[in-house]
Amino acid sequence: MSEFTRIVNAITDGDQKAADQLLPLVYEELRRLATAKMAREANETLQPTALVHEAYLRLVGNEDVQRWDGRGHFFAAASEAMRRILVDRARKRLSKKQGGNLRKHSLHDELAIEHRPDEVVDVHEALDELETVDPDAAQLVKLRYFVGLSVVEASTVLGISERSAHRDWAFARAWLAKNIEKDKTN
Prior knowledge:
Mean pLDDT: 77
Distance between the termini: 53 Å
């Protein structure tokens, strides 16, 4: 049994000290993901360290004990926590503007672009609908768009082939672009 699995099982069993042991094992990888994500955020003042800590607290710092089926499941949960934090912050920034001044956007294959708050919210809202159509593609978008993983890294986390990940990514980009644009015209 790996050290990660042992600690996760201890957390699930209610061992409060185990959460303190988990952070050093996953911190560097979470920080790398957060740093990559924050580099693309336009006008974002949240530091990667703060994003990691806030996401980690959401994962292990509440009374609802979560179960993770391994390292990949844990990082998928961490990506979801980071996504929700960034979406909440984007919504907060948009609410301060008069009318939001929403602009058209597109999802680029190369993710080294800055994400505007309105784009983050648009993708988040469309992603909920994509999840009902294709949960695997939606999970891939979360890992790529909100966490900043490459297609190869995301395929490893999801336990799917690179070919499937590339296919899902192409589908998700087209589906999101179409549905976000449709929502803008309605």
